[in-house]
Amino acid sequence: MNARVLDGEIITSKLDDVRAYDGVRTRRILACMIDYLIIGLLTIPFAILVAVLGLLTFGLGWMLFSVLVPAVAVLYIWNTLGSADQATTGMKLMGIRLDRLDGTRIDGLTAVVHSVLFWAGNVMLTPLVLLVTLFSDRKRTLHDLLLGTVVSRTDR
């Protein structure tokens, strides 16, 4: 473990530095809005494809509209948050990334589970999702606590 001294305090890793969490809550909210916009824009070409498929299958293909947005969102999360950057496009723009507390890399499945827990938490516990960040260490949300993850700034 590499330890370094910063302002008289021993820092054992980037995740132990309290400055890595300054403004994370606000950045997460803005990143979420950007990602929702991107998912919405990515859904448009797939919706056109499903519409054409529905015409070719005499309406049977239109049943895919019921799973279109979640499918696009899962593919987006798997390929961005589950990548080597460990951040969605919105997270990159806001300068944050998702890390595991044990130091291992976030894989695609963990990224999708993290997002599904986030969406489920927003549906059932909307205000509590952000309230947990006020009382948890490192401004972690409920789904971060369940999965052993943390969102930190990339610039610190």
TrEMBL record:
Residue ranges of every copy of the RDD domain listed in the record: 26-147
Transmembrane segments: 28-53, 60-78, 116-135
Pfam families in UniProt: RDD
Family annotation (InterPro entries): Pra-immunoreactive, RDD
Topology in the lipid bilayer: Multi-pass membrane protein
Primary location group: membrane
Localization of this protein: Cell membrane
Keyword field: Cell membrane, Membrane, Transmembrane, Transmembrane helix
Top-level division of the source organism's lineage: Bacteria
PANTHER family, sorted: PROLINE-RICH ANTIGEN HOMOLOG (PTHR36115:SF6), PROLINE-RICH ANTIGEN HOMOLOG-RELATED (PTHR36115)
Protein name (record): RDD family protein
Organism of provenance: Mesorhizobium abyssinicae
